[in-house]
Amino acid sequence: MNKIQNAAKVLILSAPTDLHAITVGEHLTSMGISYKIWRLEDFLKRCTLRFSLDDRSGCAAVTLDDGDSIVLNELASIWFRRPGAPRSMAMPEPWIERMMEQEANSLLGGMLRSAHCLMVNHPGKDTECLHKIWQLEAAKRVGLLIPDTIVTNDPATAGDFVAQHNGKVIYKFIGENANRLFPQSEMAIGIPTVQFREKDNQHLDQVKYGPHLFQRSIEKRFEVRVTAIGQKLFAGRIESQAISSAGKTDWRLDYSVPMEVYKLPDEIAGQCLKLLELLGLNYGAIDFCVDDEGNHVFLECNCAGQYLWLERKTDMPISAELARLLAGQGEPIIPPFSTYDRAAL
Predict the structure, then answer these.
(1) Is the C-alpha dihedral spanning 5, 7, 8, 12 positive or negative?
(2) Nearest 5°: CA angle at 293, between 290 and 296?
(3) Across 137-151, 241-255, 270-284, least confident range
């Protein structure tokens, strides 16, 4: 048995109510692996910290409000599921609260990056993966097809792109974080991918207020979600173009359509693994659309994408494989940090 398996301690950074974290935790328990689900929101309010650095080693321990402790040096792996961010106790002034939160973020960022264990994923790589422009460039580098894409704040350039593609264009946010700023009173799930319409030409002048991302709209037959767990790929076919579907442009608007296990072509599978390696990820949810000619067109990779909906519809053992990876029984793409070339990060 290898060292990571003997350690038998897994830290899952997420909310205790997160069904993904709970499901993976149940698999870890069945394997005899101890784990802890912890959310960073509690760091300043309910935890006691001890962190030291000396010439011999670094030691970090966090005592939680339930009496448990997290000792960084003893961890086998960390799953940066949806970690959240520290929230300050009430202070006399709001700026003091923000300062305490910033200090806590700086400490946690450095502390967690110092762990000598398997990371799913390294927090720095998770942050980089939020940049869709870099994702598209990375996909090109490994040989995947991507849609014709333009980002501009010039209305004339945007109009030329729309005309070049005969109006068959979609619009989407450049980054995931923009969706979180959209008022839920307007649209609870944020702005999905939107099909450009003829009447939108009269509003193109608004492009001048900031960068906008436009892509050629793909005539889809169906879509594919590939959930990568280390070097293991789970592909599902999504019938987003079904007659009854409300998500023909963005399948996330309708999870009721048929889904089934999909045999990913070997070439595409190899390119997916190369993409994860280039992005520095051990977990990724990769989306493709498949056109009438059978081409797999890369759309994006979500480093913390949901997957239970697909697991439940197809019975693919995604949670079990993720537990195996965290327990040291799977095959990571990026090895435990103690053996990784840190200069690459």
Answers:
(1) negative
(2) 30
(3) 241-255
